[in-house]
Amino acid sequence: MDDVRITLAVLHVLRQFTEDVTKPRYGYDLMRATGYPSGKLYPILGRLDRAGWLSRQREDIDPAEAGRPARYTYVLTEGGATRARQELAVNSAKLSPPPHLGLRSLRDA
How many domains does the chain have? Predict the structure, then answer.
């Protein structure tokens, strides 16, 4: 398994996968969950797939019968799940909302 450059966007995508490591994810579902457009999400999925962190499976359907093209599902590999958990643990502060320093709550006013 290869290393992947860990950006904030990669961390957000990995967090979606680690919520249930056995659940296959569709790109569209990941776009909705992360808020990332396809032009940002699919390059991340491609890098994770090429590095061996994800496994990609093509849906086994007849596009003419289904009335749509076949979709791909993505799932973390065993090694990818381990690496994702490690990266999320090391970088958890990056995913936390910033503290509201210097601001009083409305209750204190």
Answer: 1
